[in-house]
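Incident log, structure service

09:12 report received: a user says their structure output differs between two submissions of the same chain.
09:20 pulled the input from the user's history:
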Amino acid sequence: MHDQNFFEKVWWVAGQIPYGRVTSYGAIASFLSAGSAARMVGWAMNASHTSRIQIPAHRVVNRSGMLTGKHHFGHPDLMQQLLENEGISVVNDRIVDFKRLFWNPADHLVFPF
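09:34 re-ran on a clean worker, output below:
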């Protein structure tokens, strides 16, 4: 069983990630004061298709820029295609220039909850 309230907070943060940028599961968890809950953020991304609003889950990757959640997109190449549609290069399931494209929610958001 998951905490729906936590998932909604994760989805809100993911919804703020700018087009052409990416963040990590851990950065979202840290922003939500749940630093050890990166895996739970991943579960929220996996369940994001149940949200009432569209969640850009493809913009959330692991801490080294790997597309670790790509198998949850219905087709093995869909996550990469969505990122590339935003101008983000991906090679061997890893974001090219990850540090430059990384968006840290703690630097840009105020916690509204």
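09:41 both user submissions now match this output. Likely a transient worker issue. Closing.
09:42 reviewer note: The chain has a mean pLDDT of 93. The domain at 4-101 is CATH 1.10.10.10 (Arc Repressor Mutant, subunit A).
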